Amino acid sequence: MKTYVMSVAFLVFTAVSCLAQDLKKSEVPQQVQNACAQKFSESSHAKIAWEKEKGNYEANWGGRSGEDNSALFTPAGVFIEIVKAIPVSQLPAGVTQYVQAHEHGAKIKEAGLVTDAKGVVTYEAEIRGKDLIFDKSGKFIKAD
């Protein structure tokens, strides 16, 4: 029984430590803050909420939720991607067809237009706490 309890405690700790962590601005490296301000000038006038996600830094700003824009940077300040929130209705048709067929018609909670550092555009649909990634035509790529 003791082994079981320890195993469960370890799994919970591991799961929690892998989730995004909210950060104070002072906990974000200056080069990351500078890179964000240079890449997205509109972010310098906004209140940014910072998170640490999988070892990288995520800046969130804009809109009512404060998360209409989510830009991801490495600890060295290298831009990885930006996700701009979009209405679910703006997702390619293939996304809703995929969700109906493979996710038993689950409701898409949030949608985003993702542009990576190379300019590649994909779409993100949040379902049941996970992100499904699709190409521009709505073809499923992966679950994240």
Describe the structure.
A 9-stranded antiparallel beta sheet has the order 1-2-3-4-5-6-7-8-9. The N terminus is likely disordered. Helices cover about 25% and strands about 35% of the residues. The radius of gyration is 17 Å and the shape is elongated. It has 3 helices and 9 strands. It is of the alpha+beta class. It has one domain: Nuclear Transport Factor 2, Chain: A (Roll), CATH 3.10.450.360. Strand 6 and strand 7 form a beta hairpin.
Q: What attributes characterize this protein structure?
A:
144 residues; Nuclear Transport Factor 2, Chain: A; nine-stranded antiparallel sheet; 3 helices; disordered N terminus
Q: Which strands sit side by side, in order, in the main sheet?
A: 1-2-3-4-5-6-7-8-9
Q: Main beta sheet, described?
A: 9 strands, antiparallel
Distance between the termini: 34 Å
- In the CATH hierarchy, the third-tier topology is known as Nuclear Transport Factor 2, Chain: A
- Based on secondary structure, the structural category is alpha+beta
Number of helices: 3
The top-level CATH class is Alpha Beta
Radius of gyration from the alpha-carbon trace, in angstroms: 17 Å
Order of helices and strands: HEHEEEEHEEEE
- Please bin the fraction of helical residues: 25-40%
